[in-house]
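Tokens help. One example:
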Amino acid sequence: MIRRHRLAHETRVAVLAAALGLPGVVATGVWLAQGVHGPAAWALGVGVAALWIGLAMNARARTARPLQTISNLVAALRAGDYSVRGHVENSADALGGALGELNAFAASLRDERLGEMEATALLEKVIGEIDVAIFAFDGAGRLKLVNHAGERLIGRTATQLAGTSAAALEMSPLLEGETPRLVETTFTQGGVWELRRSSFRQQGLPHQLVVLSNLQRAMREEERQAWQRLVRVLGHEINNSLTPIRSLAANMRSNLRRSPQPEGWRDDLDRGLEVIEKRSEALGRFMAAYARLAKLPPPNFAAIEIAPWVRRIAELEKRVPVHVEAGPAVSVMGDGDQLDQLLINLVQNAADAALETGGTVTVTWSTQGNHLELTVLDEGAGLPPAANLFVPFFTTKPNGSGIGLVLARQVAEAHRGSLTLRNRDRRTGVEARVRLLRA
């Protein structure tokens, strides 16, 4: 198209040049018609014609070349090449000034593009590193963009997720309804998330941006730190409670050294030793429980087959029947010792509840995409009306330590999973659900 316009322009310039030379030719013809003959007349006519033609060709050269340069420069700008520049021979004339302005315009566009590329690179870096899951869907609900937090959330890479529909990712409900709002997700680690959504356009087409913030993770981290501070305070109080024990021991030792011995000293000695023994055992259990909770080491991952693992743990419980309903053959990557403790705690809690009602315990599992869902069901009385189930040292059992569920949830989250408890539907009992990534 540009070449066709350029040829048409050059044709017009050639016609202009011919028109400029026409007066010389006409003048020569008139002189010849009037009888002006001779070499001088011919020389004059040819000279005038040559002069006019020279002027016309010079005008063509001074006009066509800059216009052709301008045409090439505009074509490069339209193609996105901002590095092309035109040579300005004379910036004083109109065409030279136009060419200079185009050069300045190209330089400005180049600077803007560099700034845009740097800003885009910075934005991509921030989006990639931020600990908030970000997803972008096109008008058809296909995933177009996901950051690293979103990859960890789904358990797949951006390459694997590209073009996947929101329905396949179980994210269709997130593209509807009012925002911001709290949602409970089932397509990932579970729990309560804050959903924010906005619309934008790319290449003129509508898209939706979905942002998920894991509020529970931050809240639980704050809770964990608060619990640690609380336990430090309790440790101080425990040390203070040891003071009367030391005092009691000192009194007993003093009585033993007295002569003659006071009346009833043996009974006092026996009662004192019994108090010291029971108190020491209680404090030992408390400190051991805290040590297990506060010093959970990072998991050592290895492949674990679910079926033999579940059956082995179920056989450890002898107080009530534990039924294993086999699910699909599947493995997870996890720390065997920590996952053993997790499942032992859940089965023991279920057995404790079932003992009160004479019920049974059932363990089963299924797969949901890239996740394994392990469920422990009991036929007990159900969850108590309290929000303290996962608070350390909170227990409703007379001899409970209050760390079993907290430890189990810490193990699940250390394996990038989750643990949830709820009352069973349409019957009494509790459903404990563990969600883990498949191997």
In short: The CA atoms of residues 93 and 293 lie 84 Å apart. The first strand starts at residue 133 and ends at 138.
